[in-house]
Specification:
Layout (H helix, E strand, L loop, with lengths): L5 H8 L4 H12 L3 E7 L4 E8 L10 E2 L6 H7 L3 E3 L12 H6 L3 E8 L5 E9 L8 H30 L3 H36 L3 H31 L15 H14 L5 E7 L7 H18 L6 E8 L2 E8 L6 H4 L21 H11 L3 E6 L4 E8 L8
Parallel strand pairs: 7-8
Antiparallel strand pairs: 1-2, 1-6, 2-3, 4-5, 5-6, 8-9, 9-11, 10-11
């Protein structure tokens, strides 16, 4: 498909959350087919699909727009939700359900930041389904908003790359863009988090609770990515990372909580934790938890899935150390030098998700604490270690 709309299809394809969103739409609504569609006045193109009913439409496939309800949504910019076509006074005689053989339907408009209509997040089923509820329509709306936020970010980055010819100007604008992007993404993620909390109070069975756990895991991961973006912007725009050093509260529960969050997101992975915190350590506990989450997330993403990831922390003889180790293929020596650079994703890591900021933020946290990061990698294990001298906070007058 060589036309201007191909770029929009590819942009949706780059959004890592879309397959999960389509799966959750089907699970939440009970519909058998879900899609993200690019819709104009004269085109309807599937950007991403999940097909459990043999509808036969794949990414890049098209439907005649005049045979779809999305044409009407393009004009009205209002969602359409149908529980049972045969009983719906507005749509029981509509030609589209009969043409495509569906009885239940939901379609939510995707509106971009500049107010333009991109398309729809939609789903259908040949059988009736109860989809016209506040919980379901609210959840699908949040997913549509999240897709719009990703598309806004993708378009902003694409525009910058086209407009800027000098690398220095591109770098400066990219850093400013990231600062704005972090703020723009917080709102849809916060909305999804609120929606998950609302649905958790209304969940009645195990299947619903499992879906909500998956959604909550996605919210946690997206929040972490946004945090890394914001921290990157702070370090590059001159503000630096803020630290609140304390040794008054125990560190072990903080580290255990960080590990527990990753265990919840990766229930099939073994994570071993060993703590030996004999001395109090003056550090920013929230930042150290962020460091551990980034290191552990990196190990889970790149380590061998059939081997445990091991985490350890110790405070003895005036040295605090925190380390994360995983098995699997070693990091090539030529790649190790760039691991802590922003946006670094070595060729062997291109297939993995992430922005390439996690290890950079780790190194900045280490530097702000007056410590350092070390990495070793061979065929036995890959280990990242943070080392810092133990010191007390300055006495308060």
């Amino acid at each position: 498909m060589n036309d201007p709309l191909q770029r929009d299809v590819e942009a949706v394809g780059r959004i890592e959350a879309v397959p999960t969103i389509l799966d959750l739409v089907c699970r939440t609504t009970g519909l058998g087919f879900a899609a993200v569609a690019r819709v104009t006045a004269d085109r309807w193109i599937a950007c991403a699909t999940l097909d459990h009913i043999g509808f036969g439409l794949k990414p890049g496939g098209e439907l005649p727009v005049n045979t779809t309800i999305c044409r009407e949504i393009h004009q009205s910019r209002e969602p359409v939700v149908i529980d049972h076509v045969a009983e719906d006074p507005l749509y029981r005689h509509h030609p589209t359900p009969a043409h495509y053989g569906f009885q239940s339907y939901i379609s939510m408009p995707i509106i971009l930041r500049d107010g333009s209509f991109f398309g729809t997040l939609c789903g259908i089923s040949p059988s009736p389904a109860r989809v016209n509820t506040r919980e379901i329509t609210g959840t699908v709306r949040l997913f549509a908003d999240l897709i719009a936020a990703h598309l806004n970010a993708d378009e902003a980055l694409r525009s910058m790359r086209e407009e800027l010819s000098e690398q220095k100007a591109l770098s400066e604008l990219r850093e400013q863009f990231i600062a704005v992007l972090g703020h723009d993404l917080r709102n849809p993620v916060a909305s999804i988090g609120s929606g998950v909390q609302l649905l958790q109070r209304m969940a009645h069975d195990e299947a619903q609770r499992n879906i909500l756990v998956l959604m909550q895991s996605s919210v946690v991961r997206m929040s972490g990515l946004i945090g890394n973006l914001m921290d990157f912007a702070r370090t590059r725009l001159g503000d630096g990372l803020d630290l609140k050093l304390t040794d008054e509260a125990p560190l072990a529960p903080v580290l255990e909580h960080a590990v527990s969050e990753l265990r919840a997101i990766h229930p099939g992975r073994a994570i071993e934790l060993a703590l030996d915190l004999a001395e109090p350590v003056a550090l920013d506990q929230a930042r150290i938890a962020q460091m551990l989450s980034n290191l552990l997330g990196n190990a889970l993403a790149h380590g061998a899935k059939d081997l445990p990831v091991r985490v350890g922390a110790s405070a003895r003889d005036g040295i605090f150390s925190l380390w994360v180790a995983n098995g699997g293929a070693p990091i090539p020596p030529e790649a190790q030098a760039g691991l802590f650079h922003p946006f670094f994703r070595g060729q062997e890591r291109q297939a993995h998700e992430g922005l390439g900021l996690g290890l950079y933020i780790v190194s900045e946290i280490a530097r702000m604490h007056g410590g350092r990061m070390e990495v070793s990698s061979d065929t036995r294990e890959t280990r990242f270690t943070f080392l810092m001298p133990i010191r007390r906070p300055a006495a308060r007058g």
